[in-house]
Amino acid sequence: MTTIGTSRRQISIRDDLAGLAPYTAASALDGVVHRLNNNESPYPPPTDVVSSMLAELKQALENSHRYPDTTVTGLRESLARYVGHGIQPAEVWAGNGSNEVLLQLLLAYGGPGRRVLGFTPDFGMHRQLAAITGTEWHDGMRADDFTLTPQHARSVIADVRPDIIMVSNPNNPTGMPLPPDTIEQLVGAARDSIVVIDEAYHEFARTRSVVPRIHEHPNLVVARTLSKAFALAGVRIGYIVAAEARIHDVRMMSLPYPVSSLAAATAKVALTHAPRLLERIPAILDERDWLRVELESRGLRTADSDANFLLFTGMTCSESLFEDLAAAKIAIRNVGPAGWLRVSIGTPADNRAFLAVLDRANPTSASFTDPEERDDDHR
After folding, report:
1. Which residues form the Aminotransferase class I/classII large domain (predicted)?
2. pLDDT tens track for 101-113
């Protein structure tokens, strides 16, 4: 047998993506019992809201032989009503989670030869989205206490001259809010940049949204999600709010039919029942504040959180505690910065199971070391 074309060029991933790891997170498939790693709502939607969703899903399924609305008109109308502040449906765009919509935004305004600026620690997907789209990433870095001052932000913006700036508020992974003055000065100093304020945890926050500033700042984009406070992480609906011209540009980057009929139907019902779905937030915040006191009473230090999670440090070895929790089927996140861990607020049972492992491990003691060293001690 004669083989034709035996010499073939090896096709490999783009050079600039070499070493980039896929996004992963522990789930129930890994045997996890207490999921405190993804900042999900610890509670499912109330049964009466689920019943309303099922009624809408039945109708959507009966029409599932047809493609969904490629303009997502009905969902955008529902989102605009929920957001308020005079926002119109044409100023909203939705997709399969806010990450997908932010990817579309970077496809529109980023790419080779363009720059995106972030201030870490911040949401790690911002940097990953820059890499995927071939956009040059610049890290403005926050202070050691994770704060971001207007003076520092203005200085870095003037130096980098970015095309896009991405900042989460409240911050992920710290949970810390940005003062309104910082956001105002950041947007004002970046008149030649697209400024993305990622408000994934807005519903948990004490600080006001910057959505009302959309009509004053055509360079401002606000990203949000229904995954967290609305308890719809599995439905995958995220959205941005921006000037109509921005939405037009982002829509050009979207593949056809960006939201399934089933997801859109579920989300529209959820938005109709927003007060009902959001009424559990005070209980989650009470648990967060209680857990913060408990952690600090054990000699640990926490960042000030305006979200449904806590970032904490003070362990002799953070990796060892992470492994002890995993062995107890408790998933949290080791997302950096070094020596810090992030725990989502779960049910009271979840939170107490987490503390029970801390008490057994005694992670602030001088003898608390990494697992291999402890194994050596036992031999």
Report:
1. 35-357
2. 999 999 999 999 9
**Residue 304 in contact with residue 175, Cβ under 8 Å?**
yes
Per-residue pLDDT tens digits for 202-260: 999 998 899 999 999 999 999 999 999 999 999 999 999 999 999 999 999 999 999 99
